[in-house]
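Methods, example record. To illustrate the input and output format used throughout this study, we show the complete record for ABC transporter ATP-binding protein. The sequence lines were provided to the predictor; the line carrying structure tokens was produced by it.
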Amino acid sequence: MPPDEPLVVCRNAALTFGRGPQAVVAVHGAELEIGPGDRLAVVGPSGSGKSSLLHLLAGLEQPTTGTVRRAASLGPYDIGLVFQGDSLIPALSVAENTALPLVLAGRPEDEARQAALAALALVDAADLADRLPEEISGGQAQRVAAARVLAQAPRLILADEPTGRLDHTTGARVLDALLTAADHTGAALVVTTHDPAIAARLTARRTMRDGRLLAPEGVS
Ligand SMILES: Nc1ncnc2c1ncn2[C@@H]1O[C@H](COP(=O)(O)OP(=O)(O)O)[C@@H](O)[C@H]1O
Ligand SMILES: [Mg+2]
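The corresponding predicted structure is encoded as:
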């Protein structure tokens, strides 16, 4: 594979929920390429289609029209999605939740646990390792969700408002961890946010408004 081959390419990709008069067009004809090492913020208010776009990129949703093409070399474990909200499994400890993608990918449990603990340390959550999700706060759970993706070391990190429920300091720390992890592994990073201060920390920014992904700044 050529090193600069895009990881994901959206061409005129649209996503509609429902049919007929009830249909909601969550994403209108999006044009977007994510290349290796990209650092992209998708900025927009609530309801503008950011999560829907991220789910299209991840392959969780298929475009209603248009295409979303992922590089053939990009396997399912090469994509790490930090869901909006934290989506931890209640019966598993924080360390087990963090190690889960690695265990599912077939890594030995010891090794998976070590990688999980290292990732938890990156988001200042090492002390939470043996707690259950119900024993930690929403903000802590959001950090654990970020650690789970860091442990997986995917080639494409898609983080859906990873700092949404965190104060500025903790939010900046989680973003630092995502940026550091992406730098270490050369992963591409796409972060949705409605916070301009968070968006400013990524290399590129695209705005979503009413389901439309606007052209890059300075390009008409
Ligand atoms: N599963 C769904 N079914 C129906 N409508 C949905 C669904 N998911 C999102 N939507 C609608 O799509 C639009 C975009 O939502 P979303 O992608 O969640 O935006 P954001 O992440 O920017 O808040 C909203 O109008 C939302 O109500
Ligand atoms: Mg959302």
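Annotations derived from this record:
The pocket of adenosine-5'-diphosphate (ligand 1) is lined by residues 17-18, 24, 26, 44, 46-52 (CB under 6 Å).
Residues 95 and 190 are 25 Å apart (CA to CA).
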